[in-house]
Write a structure and sequence with these properties.
The protein is 36% helix and 19% strand. α1 links the parallel β1 and β2. The chain folds into 2 domains: 123 residues, Rossmann fold (3-Layer(aba) Sandwich); 131 residues, Rossmann fold (3-Layer(aba) Sandwich), CATH 3.40.50.720. Strands 2-1-3-5-6-4 form a 6-stranded mixed β-sheet, sandwiched between helices. α5 crosses α6 and α5 packs across α9. By secondary structure, the chain is of the alpha/beta class. The structure holds NADP nicotinamide-adenine-dinucleotide phosphate. NADP nicotinamide-adenine-dinucleotide phosphate binds next to α6 and α9.
Length: 278
């Protein structure tokens, strides 16, 4: 009889997956498999290329094949929100999910991006977000999750976006002490967040006028590839505290791990897997 080597998946192995298009660049398999291994769990995590327009089918596959967790990335976040049985209050407010969990036979859509940002910020800085003056550049999916969580935790959020109507829509969504602002408001912020893709490519312009920054501020770029965008390099050379998007990536995965397994995520093992020092 052939004896399978240790760690070979069997019929009892629980499976989680990330769906996206593209998905080959995803760091999620590294993060979650490191977490499962650190706790000795009989779980495995795979990346599945699901073409644009087929997110709802992937949810039905999850249901039929008995997957225990799904991470959802672009472009499926809204389609999956519409296909699950129920949504968490945050996912319902945002209208997009980045995670699906099982509750008996029901599939529940969650959104862990905002809490991931907050947990990452708390782990990597001494910032208390209650009462913090924040300006966020961008009003897309990432900006919406982060702005909502910050506003719910007492921050005053200014939204600055290329398209005014999207900034206005975001401010209406998050309510509280939030407003649409112009770039000049950056000078008065304590925390400045780039939530646009500007900086992913070497020749991209900076997302805002760099001379608006002051040395006592903190700048977070949600981009993590490259690990230091031109914005972060410029801000650092002016003496500002800077963070990239790896903290958010790590902690949003940690929250997903917690939702699926019910266990405290082994965050240091997960951080090691993507080269983050906490
Ligand atoms: N660290 C993490 O875990 C994490 C998670 C999610 C996303 N991200 C990163 O966050 C960034 C945004 O992602 P997303 O999903 O929010 O994208 P998205 O939904 O497409 O939103 C993009 C936002 O950037 C603005 N924008 C795009 N191109 C611009 C340009 N040339 N000039 C000025 N503004 C521009 C858009 O403005 P308009 O409204 O005018 O189009 C929009 O507000 C990406 O770099 C992504 O990699 C990181």
């Amino acid at each position: 009889m052939l004896i399978p080597p240790q760690n070979t998946p069997t019929s009892t192995t629980r499976i989680a997956a990330v769906i996206g298009d593209p998905v080959g660049h995803s760091l999620s398999p590294r993060l979650h498999n490191a977490g499962f291994e650190a706790l000795g769990l009989d779980w495995m995590y795979v990346a599945c290329h699901v073409p644009h327009g087929r997110g709802a089918e992937a949810v039905e596959d999850m249901r039929r094949k008995g997957f225990d967790g799904l991470s959802v990335t672009m472009p499926h976040k809204a389609a999956v929100a519409a296909a699950v049985d129920d949504l968490s209050p945050t996912a319902a407010k945002l209208g997009v999910v980045n995670c699906v969990r099982r509750e008996g036979d029901r599939l529940i859509g969650e959104n862990t991006d905002g809490i991931g940002f907050l947990d990452g910020l708390r782990a990597q800085t001494d910032k208390d977000v209650d009462g913090l003056r924040v300006v966020i550049i961008g009003a897309g999916g990432a900006a919406r999750s982060v702005a909502l969580t910050l506003a719910e935790n007492g921050s005053t959020v200014g939204v600055c976006n290329r398209t005014h109507a999207s900034a206005q829509e975001l401010v209406e969504l998050i309510g509280g002490a939030s407003s649409v602002v112009q770039q000049e408001a950056i000078s008065d912020a304590e925390l400045v967040i780039n939530a646009t893709p500007l900086g992913m490519n070497e020749n991209d312009p900076l997302p805002f006028g760099i001379d608006l920054l002051r040395a006592d501020q903190c700048v977070v770029d949600l981009i993590y590839d490259p690990r230091k965008t031109r914005l972060l390099l410029e801000a650092e050379s002016r003496g500002l505290a800077v963070l990239n998007g790896l903290g958010m990536l790590l902690y949003q995965a940690g929250e997903q791990f917690r939702l699926w397994t019910g266990l405290e995520p082994p965050i240091h093992a997960m951080a090691d897997a993507i080269g983050v020092t906490l």
